[in-house]
């Protein structure tokens, strides 16, 4: 009896949860490295500070963002795109730490996407009240590559819908250390983050930080 205990469950003893074809949650995958990741993020943000970007429509985004790696995702009056330099100072984004690259590649491989080499890491910072409305990630050239997302700090409720904006969304709690890999048929799903609840995290205080690893070109 015991060996089959988990066969009908969404989440087995290893903390892997398949949300949908191509979408896998690895619970706590980044936990052992969290303090090192947070130290790297602090260093990156001294060189490329968190800022609230403007949407093409002129609204300030709720989450504050920065980037590391060869390309950074930006939004301004002209649209959404990837740029090699930070528009705040005209200098290249800080390099992607080796620990980031390894974590992203290991998570992608564990989810069935071997050989993932991201060229962009968007770093989103949420404080209580901050949200991200439903959208698709479609500014990347290679939609065959997955996206790897790493959650740190305060928990969030993640919304993931279908391939049409009007499809119903499921909700998923994302906690400190959780990693989600989105690839294959889930790569273009609509997704978002509900307004963050008040709270204090032992390592990050009143913040959630999400690392989003992508292959942009
Ligand atoms: C599902 N960020 O930066 S990461 C974003 O938690 C973004 O900061 C959210 O959506 C955050 O674009 C969610 C998880 C994520 C990223 C890409 C996806 C989920 C995805 C692409 C397709 C489907
Ligand atoms: Fe997204």
TrEMBL record:
At which positions is 2-oxoglutarate bound?
124-126, 208-214
Signal peptide residue numbers: none
InterPro entries tied to this protein: Alkb (IPR004574), AlkB-like (IPR027450), AlkB-like_sf (IPR037151), Oxoglu/Fe-dep_dioxygenase_dom (IPR005123)
Give the enzyme class.
oxidoreductase
* Positions bound to substrate: 73, 80-82, 139, 165
Q: Which GO terms describe its molecular function?
A: broad specificity oxidative DNA demethylase activity; ferrous iron binding; oxidative RNA demethylase activity
Q: How is the cofactor bound?
A: Binds 1 Fe(2+) ion per subunit.
The catalytic activity, as recorded, is: a methylated nucleobase within DNA + 2-oxoglutarate + O2 = a nucleobase within DNA + formaldehyde + succinate + CO2
Q: Sorted alphabetically, which keywords does the UniProt record give?
A: Dioxygenase, DNA damage, DNA repair, Iron, Metal-binding, Oxidoreductase
Write down the Pfam families for this protein, in alphabetical order. 2OG-FeII_Oxy_2
Cellular component GO terms, alphabetically?
Answer: cytoplasm
What are the residue boundaries of the Fe2OG dioxygenase domain, all occurrences included? 117-217
In this chain, Fe cation is annotated as bound at 135, 137, 191
Entry-linked SUPFAM superfamilies = Clavaminate synthase-like (SSF51197)
| Necessary cofactors | Fe(2+)
Name its GO BP terms in alphabetical order.
DNA repair; oxidative RNA demethylation
EC annotation from Swiss-Prot or TrEMBL: 1.14.11.33
Spell out the PANTHER family in the cross-references: ALKYLATED DNA REPAIR PROTEIN ALKB-RELATED, NUCLEIC ACID DIOXYGENASE ALKBH1
Family label: Belongs to the alkB family.
**Protein role:** Dioxygenase that repairs alkylated DNA and RNA containing 3-methylcytosine or 1-methyladenine by oxidative demethylation. Has highest activity towards 3-methylcytosine. Has lower activity towards alkylated DNA containing ethenoadenine, and no detectable activity towards 1-methylguanine or 3-methylthymine. Accepts double-stranded and single-stranded substrates. Requires molecular oxygen, alpha-ketoglutarate and iron. Provides extensive resistance to alkylating agents such as MMS and DMS (SN2 agents), but not to MMNG and MNU (SN1 agents).
Put simply, this protein is called Alpha-ketoglutarate-dependent dioxygenase AlkB
Q: Which organism is it from?
A: Aromatoleum tolulyticum
